[in-house]
Amino acid sequence: MTYLAAWVLFWAGLGPASAAGVVPDTAAVAVEPGPIARSFTLDNAVTIALQNNSRLLSAEQDRIIADERLTEAKLTFLPEFGLQASATKFGAHYPFALSNELGNILVFPNGSDFNHHGYENVYSGRGYMNFPLYEGGRSINTLRLAQAALKQAQSNYDSVKMEVVLAVKDAFFRLLRAQEKLAATDETAGAAQRMAAALNLDAWERIAAEGLSETARHWEADAAQELNLRRLDFLKALNLELDTAFHVTGRLEPQPVDVDVSKAALWAMELRPELQSETYKAEMDAIAVNLAVSRRYPTLFVSGDYEVMDQHFPLLNDNWDIGVGFKLPLTYDFFTKLRQKRAEQRQGQLKRSALQDQVRLEVRQACEHLNYWQAETALRGKHYRTVSDIYDKAAPVVAASLAKLRALMTVIEMRLAYLEAVTEHTLARARLERAVGRDLVP
Length: 442
Fold this sequence. Notes:
The protein has 442 residues and is of the alpha+beta class. It is 62% helix and 13% strand. The protein has a domain at 38-75 and 136-298 and 331-436: Outer membrane efflux proteins (OEP). Strands 2-5-7-8 form a 4-stranded antiparallel beta sheet, with no helix packed on it. A two-stranded parallel ribbon has the order 1-6. A two-stranded antiparallel ribbon has the order 3-4. Helix 5 (203-238) packs parallel to helix 9. The protein is elongated.
């Protein structure tokens, strides 16, 4: 009876509310929390991009490979030692030598009967040593080649790292600009539309007012679309999932720098990792020529063996030898290889010269962009602040009119132009830092 009474009271209390379409209190409904938005500053954005970029990770593996090859080149200066053991069953009608893999052991038929059809065993253990004393400079040149290759791999890594940092800065600052642009247009678009709707105008002035209001709406819509695209670019630069919830923190502020073009070009010649990589490539080409020349030089080596052998255990028979050898290679393609390596060396010199010209051009172009946007940022900022101050002082005391609406549109247009100049000036500085190979002090 107690359960029945509780069941009746439950349906009695729920029935009228459900029939009337009453919605339960939302405070009592459990809501799953949404994804926590990640916050990015420029520094931690760069850090994450350096951890996730596939090109940089690949360049790091190239550096590891070059380091291991350098270790291999160092090990060639050590003597080669080895051990070998074998157990062989044979049947022989006449003496013969085992294969090279089994030690070239000379075996004989059992007894003097060459028609004996029995099978015999032979066991052997062997230790050997081989050490080249002189190879015409091939070992030392191989070591130098590996050292230069490691330096080149490090330079390539630094170059890719600088490109990743520049890409992150570009995406970060353009996203900041898109955020501020949307905030600016959202603030004024509504004010412009309300002002246009409140004006009592004739037909021609109404057309002009509606046109200004629609222009403000266009700015707002374009800013919202640009923000969405810039968010995707930022996530791509950091190699994160494109549906990641995040926001960036920072401000776009002009930071003037004074740069001398000649000094910047000298910095680039000294610091650019691409030029350093080509310098190491030139060193590698010269070493390759020396290696090609060393093919005609003789090789002097010392070698030794110690071997125990018998047909039964324990192995009682032993042999040993030690000797010095001399090899003089006679190659038909010596001059072909030499001409090939010299041509590659000349090719590297031409490429390095072209790269130097390209770097000088990049530095001058970056300086021109920086100087232009630095001056333009100062002028646009000055004009925007002047016009904005005039509007802020006059707006509270001046009644709404078509002229006031035009003034509001002029203020927001100059604000957007100043925001563009600050962004381009910041990016121009980042590009000059990439072209020079070092940070610039404001």
